[in-house]
Amino acid sequence: MKCALSNKLMSTLFKVSISSVRRAINTVRQALMRSFVPLYLGFESITREQIIKDHTRPLAKTLLDADDDNMILVLDGTYIYIQKSNNFSFQRKSFSLHKSRPLVKPMVVVSTTGHFVAILGPYLSRNNDASILNHMMKCNVDDIKSFVNDKDIFVVDRGFRDSITLLEELGIKAAMPTFMKKGEKQMSDTDANTSRMVTKIRWVVESANARIKNFKYLDRVLPTNQVPFIGDYIRIVCAISNKYLPPLRKATNEDEDINLATQMKQKSREINTLKAYVEENNLQRGTVQWKPIQDKATFPFHN
After folding, report:
1. Over its length of 303 residues, how does the chain's per-residue pLDDT go in tens digits?
2. Minimal CA–CA distance to 96: which of 129, 74, 135?
3. Contacts of 155 (CB under 8 A, 6+ apart)
4. Annotated domain spans of the chain
5. I need a labelling partner for 209 at 20 to 30 A (CA). Which of 79, 148, 280, 303 fits?
6. Cis omega (within 30 of 0) on the bond before 247?
7. In terms of Cα–Cα distance, which of 81, 19, 101 is closest to 224?
């Protein structure tokens, strides 16, 4: 998966038949899913206390005003592109109007340090992030409800806006960038700064998705006969990352992390003096009045 070598090339390198390569890959995949992945990925592989103690940045706790017993998770969907299917029904369900190509969407759940907590799905492309999260919570996928407690925090992007009500009903706080209100042309200072603080935490899931795509096989367009195994491949990659790769971001100095978050919160409450000056002097809508000018007025001639 790391080098995305074809079965034909591997059969040449190892001097075995292509069918033997397929059987070997299938056997290794099943063995890893049975004996390796459950140890390093999934809600049963780690406890809430471990995430809070070892995989939560002090910066995130300070920015989100989280208590010591609150768990912070960052969620986002990623894309795995697939070839066009001959099955018309599946082709319609897997075709993404947003990307204009067929794909499936795994839901990635990470901690604020980039530790992969769980991979859910993959789901068909017609499901947006909000509908996937709603399905996860309503159907209790992978027993997620027993892992999450009241007042835990989910850091999400704007694509999860239709899930906010459900999360609030379950007692889960959602940290999401804000939207501009109807009729507004620019965000208020408070909303813009709130969005910046959420982004300061949420970037880690984008880097985690990039870490998945570093395995070149998952960055390719996969054949449709591999669709049933995409979920296994992603889980294997994430388990390997948890086991052998360092965290994407971990506070080397807890005090520095807290000080940075404190400074960000203080600056977010400061008044935007430039904006106030522009509004007071009506400079944002000011019109320019041109006056005729002659060279004599600027450079007078002396006799």
Report:
1. 788 888 888 888 888 998 998 999 999 999 999 999 999 999 999 999 999 999 999 999 999 988 889 999 999 999 999 999 999 999 999 999 888 999 999 999 999 999 999 999 899 998 999 999 999 999 999 899 999 999 999 999 999 999 999 999 999 999 999 888 787 777 888 888 889 999 999 999 999 999 999 999 999 999 999 999 999 999 999 999 999 999 888 766 788 888 988 998 888 888 888 888 887 877 776 666 677 776 665 666 665
2. 129
3. 60, 64, 72, 73, 74, 75, 112, 174, 175, 176, 198, 201, 202, 205
4. 36-272
5. 148
6. no
7. 81
Q: Find residue 116's DSSP bridge partners.
A: 110
Q: Does domain 36-272 have CATH number 3.30.420.10?
A: yes
Q: Write out the H or E segment, with its range, that includes residue 24.
A: helix 18-35
- As a whole number of angstroms, the distance between CA 260 and CA 234 comes to 34
- Strand partners of residue 153: 72, 173
Distance of alpha carbon 101 from alpha carbon 264, whole angstroms: 40
**Rounded Cα gap, residues 102 and 76, in angstroms:** 19
Three-state DSSP class for 127?
Answer: coil
Alpha-carbon span 42 to 238, nearest angstrom? 10
Place of tokens 């859910």: 120
Place of tokens 């509908």: 131
For residue 30 the two structure tokens come to 């099943």
Q: How far apart are CA 179 and CA 94, in angstroms?
A: 29
